[in-house]
Design a protein that fits this description.
heterodimer; A: 120 residues; alpha+beta; CPE0013-like fold; 5-stranded mixed beta sheet; 3-stranded antiparallel beta sheet; 10 strands; elongated; B: 426 residues; alpha/beta; 7-stranded mixed beta sheet; 5-stranded parallel beta sheet; 9 helices; 23% helix; 34% strand; globular; binds flavin-adenine dinucleotide; binds iron/sulfur cluster
Chain lengths: 120, 426
């Protein structure tokens, strides 16, 4: 039996989690305040993922850049590939919050969406 | 002179939530004054996710969180002026502002809500004599450059101070292709949220050196390198622990300080610990009808709490205006308020006084601790009796704490003069 300590990043409470593992099997997760902590611990030990945020250039808008995010969390090892693909993206104004900026980023099946709008 | 019921200074999350709440509580003539070119305050440059879990039950980025409130304000037809700088507020609540279209203007407010936010500390952060080459930025300035202007200020980065903005920028600059070599923190604990240490430093293998500071800066025109050293418990560098780093950029993330020039100008009673106004249970300052909320009151880590606090300020300001309008005579023999005192590990409390007649059924008292404590209790003494004794596995200066006071409980103590809040070790 192995004990692993993690900090839940599900929200800014940052609950200290303790996971008991037997081989590759997770026996228990404790220390979480809400169910998201349990889910986070299981995922972090098998397939860690993160939401990625960045910015892309805007053409002809009232701002130079707008902020974007991956619509869902993507595998941790795809973070740099994701940011790299976004470097080449430039979007034409107008843009609205939630508009898809880039589909299937880095082959993750996840879209990148705008988190800020820009008018002309 | 034009007159408004409530004038709100600052259109960040605090100002927006206060305005929405004031309107929902029945006040028509509400005005927000914002010096920037858009509403939303500092959230516009905080493009990372993690905002709004408490308020909206989903994880938003800063601009998305701001947009939710801006949409609410638009729906309620709230009046606002951007590119408008408030220059002065008089004791009689005459607000003087300036903008390009109108020049200098004065308006009369019945109530004022201060929501000016905070700015970054900079002075005193670099306690080293000598040259200041280019390449030294505050973390917030770097955040604006990268996120809003798409400009990467450097390639090899050292960050001094482990406040949240510094941690967030360590990740951001790494993703943008810079090499962040180390984050150095003078204190033996981090000033930022644990989750930011995990997902901004640990994820990218960026070392965090606690009890370390910058003791030397090299480079004439542009920064070329720095020297870090470990410090002892008095903050003095320990000889023999020096380590050299080459870098072209040094970011300072050494804390935030409420922006209170206007409050000082009005002669509001200020708190030396928070650098914000002292307020009562209604978030009202020492001047009746002048309220404060958000980072201008005390620095928050969580925008959700800013919105919650601001909504309370908006509601209280609305009630103040209604009371003034209906000219309800407040009984003169109103009891003197209960004082909240922060001792033994607790640095301050917001609010600082409580008038039981005016408080909500459940009042949130927020505070920060002065050091890291493990397996401790947060206790509240009603005069000499310990009434609240809440176990906490860990409390730290980087994370705001709170306790709740129940009105029904306070009513059981009619002669209560003082509530003392402290940390007790197990
Ligand atoms: C540089 C910086 C970066 C931050 N990054 C993060 C982060 O990454 N994550 C996080 O959770 N929190 C962050 N914070 C904390 C964040 O500020 C709060 O969570 C929240 O935005 C505070 O809201 P507020 O409305 O009180 O202040 P603000 O958002 O600062 O809004 C105050 C507004 O008042 C306006 N104002 C000030 N003075 C005047 C005047 N005289 N006349 C007219 N308008 C005026 C300002 O222009 C501003 O728009 C950051 C703070 C700073 C200073
Ligand atoms: S367990 Fe729940 S409350 Fe605790 S940090 Fe994770 S998401 Fe937040």
């Amino acid at each position: 039996m192995k004990k692993i300590n993690l900090i839940c990043i599900g929200c800014p409470m940052g609950c200290p989690l303790t996971i008991e593992k037997d081989g590759s099997k997770i026996i228990s997760v404790t220390g979480n305040t809400c169910p998201r902590g349990d889910a986070y611990a299981r995922k972090e030990l098998t397939n860690p993922t993160r939401i990625v945020t960045s910015t892309v250039a805007v053409e002809g808008g009232d701002v130079m850049r707008i902020s974007v995010k991956t619509k869902q969390d993507i595998p941790k090892d795809k973070i740099f590939a994701c940011v790299k693909e976004l470097k080449n993206v430039s979007i034409k104004a107008p843009v609205h919050i939630g508009d898809v900026i880039l589909e299937n980023v880095a082959g993750t099946g996840v879209d990148v969406v705008a988190t800020k709008g820009s008018s002309w | 002179m034009k007159a408004y019921d409530i004038v709100i200074i600052g259109g960040g999350p605090a100002g927006l939530a206060a305005a929405v709440s004031a309107r929902k509580n029945g006040i028509d003539r509400v005005l927000i004054l914002e010096r920037d070119k858009e509403l939303g305050g500092i959230l516009n440059q905080c493009i990372h996710n993690g905002f709004g879990l408490h308020t909206f039950k989903e994880e938003l980025t800063g601009p998305e969180y701001a947009a939710r409130y801006i949409a609410q304000a638009a729906e309620l037809n709230l009046e606002y002026k951007i590119n408008t700088m408030v220059m002065d507020i008089s004791h009689e609540k005459i607000v003087t502002y300036m903008n390009r279209e109108e020049g200098m203007q004065e308006i009369q407010a019945k109530a004022v809500i201060l929501a000016m936010g905070c700015r970054e500390r900079s002075r005193g952060a670099l306690n080293i004599p000598g040259y200041r080459p280019a390449g030294i930025f505050s973390a917030g300035t770097a955040q604006r450059l990268v996120n809003m202007e798409g400009y990467l200020p450097g390639r090899e980065v050292v960050i001094l101070g482990s406040g949240d903005i510094g941690l967030i920028m360590a990740r951001r600059m790494t993703l943008e292709g810079a090499k962040v070599k180390v984050v150095s923190e003078l204190m033996p604990y981090s000033g930022g949220l644990k989750r930011n240490i995990v997902q901004c430093l640990d994820d990218y293998g960026i070392p965090l050196k606690l009890s370390h500071t910058v003791i030397d800066i090299r480079g004439k025109e542009r920064l070329e390198g720095i020297t870090l050293a470990e410090v002892d418990s008095h903050g003095k560098p320990i000889p023999g622990t020096e380590e050299d780093y080459t870098c072209d950029t040094l970011l300072l993330s050494v804390g935030l300080i409420p922006e209170n020039e206007l409050s000082n100008g009005m002669g509001i009673d200020m708190n030396r610990v928070t650098s914000g106004p002292n307020v009562n249970e209604s978030l009202e300052t020492s001047i009746p009808g002048v309220f404060a909320c958000g980072n201008v009151l005390h620095v928050h880590d969580l925008v959700d709490f800013v919105s919650e606090e601001a909504a309370a300020a908006g509601k209280n300001a609305a009630e103040y205006v209604m009371r003034e309008k209906s000219a309800v005579q407040i009984s003169k023999d109103i009891k003197s308020p209960i004082e909240l005192e922060a001792v033994e590990g607790v640095r301050y409390t917001v609010p600082k006084t409580v008038n039981v007649d005016r408080m909500t059924d459940r009042l949130t008292v927020r505070f920060r601790v002065g050091a890291v404590y493990q397996n401790c209790f947060v206790s509240a003494y009603f005069d000499n009796e310990r009434v609240i004794h809440k176990k906490r596995p860990v409390v730290a200066p980087g994370e705001m704490e709170d306790i709740k006071l129940d009105k029904s409980k306070l009513l059981e103590y009619p002669d209560l003069k003082k509530i003392t809040i402290k940390i007790e070790e197990a």
